[in-house]
Amino acid sequence: MSDQVLIFDTTLRDGEQCPGASMNTREKLEVARQLARLKVDIIEAGFPIASDGDFEAVHAIATEIQGPCIAALARTTEKDIVRAGEAIAPAAKKRIHTFSSGSDIHLQTMLNISREENIKRSVNAVKIARKFTNDVEYSAQDTTRSDRDYLVELYSAVVEAGATTLNIPDTVGYAIPGEYGELIAYLVARVKGPGVIFSVHCHDDLGLAVANSLAAVQAGARQIECTINGLGERAGNTSLEEVVMAMKMRPEIFGGVTTGIDTRQLYPASRLVSHMTGMVVQRNKAIVGDNAFAHESGIHQHGMLKNRANYEIMRAEDVGRTSELTWGKHMGNHAVRKKLEEMGYKLSDEEIRKITEAIKTLADKKKHVYDEDVRAIVEGQFTEVPQVWKLDYLSVMTGAIPTASLRLVHASKQEPVSDAGTGDGPIDATLKTIDRITGLKGNLVDYSVASVTRGKDAIGEVSVRAQFENGKIVTGKAAATDIIEASALAYLNALNRHMDDQRRMAESEKPSV
Ligand code: KIV
Ligand code: ZN
Q1: pTM exceeding the 0.85 threshold for the entire prediction
Q2: Which of 140, 180, 214, 355 satisfies CB 3.0 to 4.6 Å to 102 for a cystine?
């Protein structure tokens, strides 16, 4: 059995199924570039049959991204598989991932087919997929509530038809680690095929996705499907950063397996995905949360000063977290490019020029400029939601009746539009005035503000989740040294995203997995 555990990243497919986390093609490409820097083995780029937008994103990723294998998802119908095959065609390494279900509950009440018919369709799907690529993955959803011997029959049939990777999903996040490990061992022992790789795909409904994936590796799985920050349907998927670091820190527990991941790219990947999706990472999240390397208690701080190993099992630098004070207003484009490359960003000359200017402006306002400040600036450049409405001017008066005066510019109108309004507080007044000017009505379902940098003059990052007339929740994010300005920009980002979604939805209807 190989010592290498393949990392199959599904942030752009299952991760994107997380409510409110949808990304446009440019945002997906930016994430895919970071996944390539992270050196994941496979990028599941999307579900091409779902919409023209999904197809376009998978095709763009397959055209540009070098290194990882590019996978596309398809149900077992010919139409799905052909669309997936066309989307990944430009990639040097490509995979079709076709899926059905394994449990009786899915077969009887969702697909309305017999076990035999399911095998027939799955075999046929794998054969069609093999016409596009020799790398074909097959998944039966809901394996953890399926009859084990039926799974042996189903997976043996698809191997015979040409499947090269067998994925055993815990679709509903139902498994417990020991039990899931046993299921994997049961299938590894009975389903035979030359070079077949067993893969796992776990959901986190019981908070066990990472533990289940690791138990599966101990039982013989050699591919883990996972997402950055554990993003995904419902409670999410296995968190990539957690499984990778668990295997790296405790190789003896996993029989010495390794992954090809460049762990110094984990934190940049986490920040980028959080920014692109508007899904804030909880402060105490393992590996990538703000507090993951912070030591608060006196005893811990004392122990750390004596020897870091007293309270730290891994170094912050090894997962890509650095905070040296090296930025300043005298830096030129060349130095900025070099530092940004060290942080994992590869940007065009124009982007570097804009960022250098922004660093200088920030350095005039702020005593110290940290890596995190610069990261917030860089990520701000990537927010490629078309800016239909832009903030031109904002002034707020607090006091008995908080009042906001705003001027917004519409992309296709010459004249800016000004208005003023009151609210329960300065932020409420600002957002209500934005609604009045744009004629859209957003209901704020979530609002959070976090300091992304240090000190009294820190940059504040505001994340909002807003529901507009169509009922869909969209996210928005923005950073500024002034919280009210950051709130206005984040809300406008959500509003523009809503308008962009409306436009894309008009183009196509998206079936869900
Ligand atoms: O959760 C699941 O079963 C899936 C499959 C499509 C692999 O996402
Ligand atoms: Zn899934």
Answers
A1: no
A2: 140
